[in-house]
Design a protein that fits this description.
By secondary structure, the chain is of the alpha/beta class. The chain has a single domain, classed as Rossmann fold, CATH 3.40.50. The chain is built from five helices and nine strands; from the N terminus they run βββαβββαβααβαβ. The radius of gyration is 32 Å and the shape is elongated. The N and C termini lie far apart (96 Å). The model is unreliable at 5-12 (pLDDT under 50).
Length: 200
């Protein structure tokens, strides 16, 4: 025996299982909502500036770099005007196995304009060329460019080249610029600016 139910058109239709006493009304079929496509957030590196008129910003930045390397990230610390330790590219120091610390191969710290110190200019240019290559290739996860602004001010590194390189850096790369002098163009690019002051 088959049970029949009147349809809206006046016709009848049979339901499976009606002979066993299963009289259920037909529920309307509601389509399931299609989940919206969500893009996975990609890591986005920051450009940070740490500046102080009394050259006091590097210590805290170095501790951050060491901690980052200790956690497994690749780090490059380039100090453009610090000399006196007979470093240069071939004798750069490695810490934590993943932090490369690079200084120019000059006998003393650089404080003269580039045209007055041709040997220092060549040594600083070597540090910048290597740092720039590492920056553009994304070979590291964190790069610290110490006293880059002062190197620009003294004529050792071109500002336009610095700006262009920072604009083209890979998205994942964190860059920290430190030093007492920082061009307005670099300050304007920064995601975060930390300024140390005294006497407040």
């Amino acid at each position: 025996m088959t049970a029949s139910f009147p349809a809206s058109s006046g016709a009848s239709r049979s339901l499976p299982g009606a002979s066993r006493g299963l009289h259920r009304p037909l529920a309307p079929v509601t389509p399931r909502p299609v989940p919206k496509l969500r893009l996975v957030a990609q890591p986005e590196g920051l450009l940070q500036v740490h500046t102080a008129s009394f050259r006091g910003s590097f210590g805290s930045v170095l501790s951050q770099a060491l901690r980052t390397a200790g956690l497994g990230s690749r780090v490059l610390v380039s100090q453009f005007l610090k000399g006196g330790v007979d470093q240069g590219l071939e004798a750069s120091t490695w810490l934590c196995g993943r932090l490369q610390w690079l200084r120019p191969a000059v006998p003393a710290c650089v404080d003269q304009p580039s045209e007055q110190a041709p040997e220092a200019a060549a040594a600083v240019a070597e540090v910048w060329a290597f740092s720039r290559e590492q920056l553009l290739s994304g070979a590291v996860d964190l790069m610290v460019l110490d006293e880059l602004g002062l190197a620009v001010e003294l004529g050792y590194v071109g500002l336009d080249e610095v700006v262009s390189s920072l604009e083209r850096r890979p998205a994942h790369l964190d860059v920290i610029l430190t030093g007492p002098a920082m061009p307005a163009e670099l300050m304007a690019m920064a995601d975060q600016v930390t300024q140390l002051r005294r006497g407040l």
